[in-house]
Amino acid sequence: MTWEVYAVKYADRADRTRSDSFLFDPDDKTPHPIDYFFWVLRQGSRVILVDTGYDEAEAVARGRPIRVSPVDALLPLGLSPSAIDDVIVTHLHYDHAGGLALFPNARLHMQAAEMMYATGPCMCFDALRHPYTGAHVAEAVLRLYSGRVVFYDGDGAVCDGVTVHKIGGHARGLQAVRVLTEAGYLCLASDTAHFYGNFLRKALFPIVVDAEAMLEGFGTVQQLASNIGLVVPGHDPLVREMFPQFQTDDIVRLDKGPLRPEHLNDLSHLADR
Fold this sequence. Notes:
Low-confidence stretches: none
Number of strands: 13
Radius of gyration: 17 Å
Order of helices and strands: EEEHHEHEHHHEEEEEHHEHEE
Helix content: 10-25%
Shape: globular
Number of helices: 9
Largest sheet: 8 strands, mixed
């Protein structure tokens, strides 16, 4: 059976330039906004969340306001925190795992390498620790001690039609998610590729722990999807132009494919945006 897939926007930032998105970009002073998403997988009554966003406390602490709480962002889909039994954590950065406490009943699915990295000696360095928040990592550890973490070492099946794939690069245990949909296999790249331009131009994102793994990952996400139009970058506002809205501009439905069929095979018009 196939899955419905939704991208849910909960925050954005306009105070960025292309230098914040693409390493060594020649047009580095041009504004380049970013959207913050998490994703919902739904098959009948079963719901899986991919990442959680971050809450108001984290927004205040980092000076990065959110438009809506992740919990409230789910309301148009008719979902409440109690409906979420499983959360796939692509990695433990604050903007992807900052809402774990909002879904207290959920089992977490993550790469073992990410837990080891986020709780290991690398966190002694400010530059490597910056995208993480201790309370979020501690929440993941608490779930572990209550028997509610499923670890993967590389590729793994969460359930029929949903698999995870370790890629690394941006974070040591970063994973992408492959989902069987009506349109074919969809790849939620998360921060494997923040923007279309990252994987289309092989342009490194500046926050990187392994540049080689990030570059190889740009190819991997394309291999995981049935076609290039079903690769969904983790933070690109263009996602909301490519896919149909669901009730509001802040939620788009991904499982039926892009709005324009030709975009399944050619995204060259997005490479420099």
